[in-house]
Fold each of these.
Amino acid sequence: MADYMSAELAATCAALGYYDGKKYYLDEHCLDVIKDLIKYLKRDDDAHSIRRYLGQTKLLQSDLLKIFIQHCNKLELWDVLLRQVLIYRLIINLTSPALLIYNEQIPMDKTMRNFYLQIISHLQSYKIALADDQIWIIVNNRLTNIFSIDNMERGEENEMIIERILALIRNVLQVPPDENEKRTDNDATVHDQVLFALHASGIVDILLFIASSAKEQQYHMQILEIISLMLRDQSASQLASAGLQRSTIEKEKDEALLLSIRQKEKLEKFEKLKKYAGARHSRFGGTYVVQNMKAIGDNQMLCHKPYEKVEAVEFNSQKTKVKKPKNKLPIQDSTNQRRSALSIRLFLKEFCVEFLNGVYNPVMRYAKSCVISDVQCDTTEGSCYLWALRFFMEFNRCYKFQVKYVSETISTEIFYIIQRQMDQYYEMIVTDKKRIPIWSYRLHLALKAYKELLYTLMAMDKSPDQDIRESSKVIKSNVFYVPEYRETILSQLLNFDEFKMSRANTISTPLTVRRELRFKDVNRKNWVTCKTSYLALCQLAKDLVISVPQNPKENLKK
């Protein structure tokens, strides 16, 4: 950045006001300064110099949030901070996701990649500052006042404020975790702190109110995206089994982890004692001859330690490894599930139960219509729909399985929608090579949603209600006997590419096939198709070291 530009930005930021340690005093030109900063961000260059400068000076933490908290009663200033006047408002713009700023394409250039990582670090510092419940109490009061007005009399300005607030919540929750944070299970991360602040301030209750209201249907997709970001680190099965006391599985897992850490410490101490105890080097123990293996010359090959097997002899210890090209590197998994603090899990469990009881079916009905109308599948609506389908159906199955809570997403039409999404995502992986990680992630979401549908059908088969079992039988007869649905997973196996799909996708595919094969009532007509899919499964399972019976007929009904 040029010196004159940095000097102008510094002078502009200084004209906002000052903080004496207790109170923030506004400058008389504060409103004009905020408008100027919005214009600066609008005209930012490709390197995002202004955005990075504002992040380095910590403008959001030192000035904007203090203005937001202490001068929230000034409606004119509130509208400048949160409502759209020109293009973007200041806080919404500063907290915009880094991937969205770069058009969902991570820069490959070294300099631009460093700028991208710098913006992410600024967003992570913003998230820490926004984990204050005072901020969200003010937002909650503002939303409460707006929703107290009738929908027909609310006006366009209030509707815009609602959209901006929902965008702010989404931006804060979308910030990726810091790799240096390294919090263990049952510990509160920054994301957990933000969730607790949203819960304590009442924002979570407002989100449930918006989702349950048929008059606020235009915000349902935004609510669904926010919920997916809230629960992104949670496991539905663990969340469903969360209680006031730790379960036996959690205790055993913690004890095993503690023992492994203890063993690691003992091993490190033993290695240090062995290193400094004056023990002779292993090279003084003599040399050995490998039988039936020639060296470079005519002599027998020598080694400096005894080997039990010939396969243990390695020749690559001193060789330099060939660096893999970027397009051959495996795709890393974007989600890491962890166990949050008990208080966080308890209120999230309560939130999921309330969402299932009165919100899930109408919200998913509206989301399904949005996904069907989205022909190109280029928006995040499809991925949010698939994530919500998989998560809440798994939560319902593991908590207290009742079909009426998820009846909207148990039908043959849902199988068709998932199949369409999977085919579309795979086509985009082949054509849109610059965004392969995004399409691979969405393909994995569709695959997990398909697998959860199979698990739900299995739970319906075990239901004591005869009508539920008959409904499951009808769905299976429609799905497993139609070639389009029957060969869905087989096509995924045949089109699998280890360089374009993550490790989690690699594991989910054969597990889904195994679950599907258990359902199929195979006769002589469809035996060829099932045998082909099973052989493809076995071939893939060999690479994944998954135990599969050698005889395919053991898992199939003749």
Note: The longest strand covers residues 288-294.
Amino acid sequence: MADKVRYYLEQSVPELEDLKVKGLFDKNEITMIMRRRTDFEHRITGRGSRPRDYLKYSEFENNLEKLRKKRYTRLSKVGLVDTKPSISDWAGVRRIMFILDRGTKKFPGDQQLWAEYLTYAKDNGAIKVVYKIYSRLLQLQPRNVDAWLSAAKYEFETNANAKGTRLLFQRGLRLNPESTALWLSYAQFELTYISKLLARRKLLGLLTESEQKKETDDMMILPQAETTLNLPDADMSMLGSPETNPALKGDVFLAIFDECVKAKGFDVVEKFLHLIDQFEDLDRDYLYSHVLNYIQREYPDDIGTAFIDITLPIRTSNDGLQLSVNKFLAYKAKNPNKELTNMFVNKLMQIDGNEKVKPLIQAIIKKINPA
């Protein structure tokens, strides 16, 4: 253990000498830094080490790095420090990552260590390191749904890599098919992606497929999985327009919906409808129609199917109020159901309308549910 501690401490000597030469820290401060590092190294290499020892060590180094940057900025303004790049400029960040890397290897099940490591790597723009961390984390914890969601979010929002994001969601679902959060996040990603893609192409005038081919995605090493899930190809074509390419119309989202309902049942249907509600720029009627047709085929006798059929015309506006009422009356005439009536009345009472609409809704409620 002593040899290992000595080895790690010796690695920091050039950095400390550079800090002293630049005048950022004096001899006494350098001695204090070495003493603290020695103490921390003994703690984390000992048999009784704990995850918080690594966190405290990284916190000390992080505070030290902040102090170095503050002094460097102040002294460089008055020309009292050599601004030529040297080892102390990057050694602090590398040391902190090395400490956290060692911590995650010794305590692979500690979520706080992984979170700290990821946050620090992201904050410092270390994309390759972030990929390495996520790859290790997902290999070690394939059932960690939060890790899959975090990796997918990073891949899409930070790296704008749709193919990589799709692969993450699909692999995560094959390993965690029971996770509703993964299903819904994957579905939301697909709608968000085509919405942004179509808006961008419209803005830039990328109308032909040859122009669109120039849009490229640049992967994490993911754990393997065997499953019967029938998910879309991650490398699908996104060329063309909604009229020529069903993927741009929302068919990928609908494929996810079909598979999710098979796996999770009717309870997730409303959550998918809520996702569709949020995308005004897409053909929502096309998406709604598929959902309705699916549940009418698979759950024809479920009261929820009737309720969705009745209320679809008024999900996003009041324009379909008359159609909604007519559908309800048709269901009522065919099979009177007090529960369905109460559900529809509650839905009508939730409608936000102007002074003309409110009296109309009250009249409708009295008609369909007389006291």
Note: The CA atoms of residues 44 and 53 lie 6 Å apart.
Amino acid sequence: MDRRVCRKVAKMGNDKVVLPSYPETEEARHEALEIVELGPFCNRISSNAIKAIAICCPNLRKLRFSGIRDVDGDAINALVKHFAGTTRMNWGLVLQYWTKLPNLKGLDISRTNVTRSVVWMLLSSSASLKVLCALHCPTLEEGDRGSTNYYPRGKLVIAFFTDIFKELASLLRDITKKESNVFSDWRNMKNKDKNLEEIMTWVEWILFQGVGLALNLMQSSQEDVQERATMVLATLVVIGNENARVDGGRVEAVMCGGGIRLLFNLARSWREGLQSAATKAITNLSVNANAAKAVVEEGGIEILSNLARSMSRSVAKETAGGLWNLSVVEEHKEAIAKAGGVKALVDLILRWCTSGDRVLEHAAGALANIAADDKLSMEVAEVGGLRALVMLAQNCKLVGVQEQVAHALANLVAYVDDNSVKVGQEAGALEALVELTYSHHESVR
């Protein structure tokens, strides 16, 4: 590069990316450069820098930016002209140029202000475009306007309002039998179609890059980095604010990356913050049936039962939540009892009975599930569960807690006659039950 060329410098952590200033770029050619990946903090990269990349790197095959604030029309034109996101896009220019790209198979427009009409025009106007990724696009996700019924047949839209695995499974109709196994089935294919290979590899990178980064940072030698990365992972597998749910693709990415075992190793740390973050991630993952099975197979019930005895409220809350999720499955209930989990949950309620924290709702919910088993119902009562639940009904008026207490007491009485007698003999039990039946909340009654 000629020394007279003015240079733009963008800091990327401890590194620097040096780019020639536009338009003084004709002398700066990097014909051997094929891949440019910058991120996640690219907010200081200007449109001029992007133009420089387009002009100076004629053989570029892959260009990935993350965190760009804004790009003007000239930069988009330069990219389209020399080879072919950002949150703010000039969709008129996108439709004018990108739909003419003959080899465009997949396009990621996530985290942009794209609208349904633009998505329709992109898919219908481009003959080569097969898959459109539109995650975290608020305008597109409003109400039911994102229904895939609005999009051309034979085109895949990957978004939170679509069934991602079902969409991808349509590409492997004759291969995959279970939609949630689409990525593993694809990897095990013996004779892979080149076009399909490119699309699946690209989609996998889009969906799993955040999980992979978190898993790598969780193995850092610095415990504060481990803790932050674990909290990111715990949040990353959950999507949506209201009616939050666990994303199956991200859960699979965690499992494939050895995340379950890694989380249990971190849960054994002496640091309460790391214990809390790890158990929170385990709890969130356990909502998924496949992940819950993996948690149990890795000895997770024993680990969670031990952590339920923690004197840290945050650790106790997340641990009780994990046991609550796992106790939904019948065969897990007995495993929890064998690991001492029932007694640990009862002690947890007695320890935090006046805290008003969600730890009580989680613990009562787990006991309610376990008490639904006629054999284990007696054990719940024998280890002090009845007394703990009655105390909770008397002292905690939070609706979520009362709802789970009501379920637990109902299950205790329903399955074992001796428990009915014990309820009648337990001081304050009948009064507590009567009060619950007069609750203003139907879910409690």
Note: The chain has a mean pLDDT of 75.
Amino acid sequence: MSRTLAVIQSLILLTSVMILSITPVLGEDNDGIVIDEIVEWSTDTDISENIYIKSNGKLTISSVITFRSVAEIYIEEGGVLDLIENGEIISQKRASSLSTLGDNMSKLIIPTGEYLEEMNIIIVSEEPFSLNGSKVYVNEIEELSMSGETFRIQIPGGEQDTQLSFDGFGIFPIINSIILETPTGIIINEYKASSLTSDNMLLYGENGVSINSLGTLQITGNSTINGIDISS
């Protein structure tokens, strides 16, 4: 075999095992992104389509992939989705409410100490639920019976954050958000419930992205999946 022919064959072999690093593209049917070979996404990308990983496909993600709309990731049997090296899949639409467990077990910390002045805490329930029949304990001392879709608590000024503990009688409140406002009704800040420090509370709501896998899903190297439902 000539030296030239040997070099050519070596190049062909190397090319055949290379991992492609490309920007996501639509499949031929324009109904999503089709992965039917070995592909790596190493550039942060926003996506609004479904992803189909075929039986002969492997998608490696080492970047941040953000879904801007409702979508699904399908992994066929034999297909592989591999997150490595701090890779992330993020859904902009995600569950953000918190469901309480009752018996004064569920706690939520409100950062009132950041503002010092007197203010109101407004507890906003998840639609279409209400706060009827449930109680809130302020700093484990003051007990208040809640009602309606929103409930307002007056908090004195100070440097301490406020702890709210929740209880119910068969119907435990589901908290959508917390609003801080001045005594005159000017909104200071609004927090999604899931963004606050909590204890013994369950995430509630719908995520915008789901992974349906008959194949392999691997998450290594400090990689994460945020706001995504997984079924297999």
Note: Residues 3-17 form the longest helix (15 residues).
